Amino acid sequence: xxxxxxxWKEISIAGVPPKSSIGFMTGxxxxxxxxxxxxxxxxxxxxxxxxPEGAIKWRPEMGKIEFDFSFCKGCGICANECPTKAITMKxxxx
Amino acid sequence: xxxxxxxxxAKDIANKPDLFxxxxxxxxxxxxxAMMRLIMKATRGPTIVTQATGCMEIVGSIYxxxxxxxxxxxxxxxxxxxxxxxxxxxxxALRKKGKIKQEHIDIIALAGDGGTYDIGLQALSGAVERGHxxxxxxxxxxxxxxxxxxxxxxxxxxxxxxxxxxxxVNPGKLEKKKPITEIMLAHEMExxxxxxxxxxxxxxxxxxxxLEVEGPAFLHIxxxxxxxxxxxxxxxxxxxxxxxESCVFPIWEAVNGKRTLSTPSKLIALAPQKKKPVKSYLExxxxxxxxxxxxxxxxxxxxxxxxxxxxxxxxxxxxxx
Lengths: 94, 321
Description:
The structure holds 2 protein chains of 2 kinds.
Chain A: E1 19-20, E2 33-36, H1 46-50, E3 56-59, E4 64-67, H2 77-81, E5 87-90
Antiparallel strand pairs in A: 2-5, 3-4
Chain B: H1 10-15, H2 31-39, E1 47-51, H3 55-59, E2 65-66, E3 72-74, H4 80-96, E4 106-112, H5 113-118, H6 121-130, E5 135-140, H7 180-185, E6 191-195, H8 200-212, E7 217-222, H9 226-229, H10 236-245, E8 252-255, E9 258-261, H11 263-270, H12 278-282, H13 297-320
Helix pairs in contact in B: 4-6
């Protein structure tokens, strides 16, 4: 938060949080990151459904699933639930 | 309730923009956050959300950020339902004055198990009695997780929390979980249902049904919390699935008091050999770790017995209706 921002005492009563949380990257929380094997992926969208962060996006125009690592917290739900085991959790160095 | 059923597939849901946005500060592998994102995709038009204090309220509204892409009101712990009644009254008044043209405005009140089972119960009961048109969604993670994992009346028997620690004197919580849906059913509501995010199709259908009801509706969603349950973040959805498969949390819906099991639970009722032992659900959760020691093993049997008894009772209730 920059110093120019109003503090809670200065905002109006029943104030509105002025910014969308899309501006707050939670991607740097992760230790492991999901790596997808495109050959095994059947685009069943299970990972898209279960991602708590909304970091796995379905792009209908390309017919592709895209991972947004700026929000992924590396929980591993996608790897655990993938029916074809196309996702594995790896350290970024690997 | 309308007779026309809402039909959708995974692509329809994936194509819908998120209303609970990325960038919220929930723990990695948060069950309630996954559920929140999904249920917001079942809304059908203009929707107002009011939320009691709880994990999901905190993580989505840390100043100056908000994770909500729709009108959202925060309220104190005890009055999510009272707030929803106020919104409903305001919508009605504005409509009378001709200031609202929309056919329907949906109101969703969200609260955790603390804000429903304990603190918010009287406001909820009152709002239901007055017959306000809103959907109350309870996300149940079985404890006060955001304040440091204290027990709530939703915490199950034998679970260790910071206020019911497991040790040489007590084996975790000594009391049973409060049967909240039975309490809500006793209010003679038009729609009461239970759901869990692993069966997301079922969950979304129930949210939509609850919104379509003219009058109050109650939805109990079981959402695993890896932090409070001391389980693997990656296994959140697995526990959500196991809770249904072991009949710890059967899923059903009751329309005008007529109770029917939903498909995943119905399959277990039809083929009882598919029912998993509660041990498979308890294992791996750190809050139940102490149960697997010789002096506490009897508690696992006790939990199994209580679960079987509850399941048998539920089957009876579903048949009778």
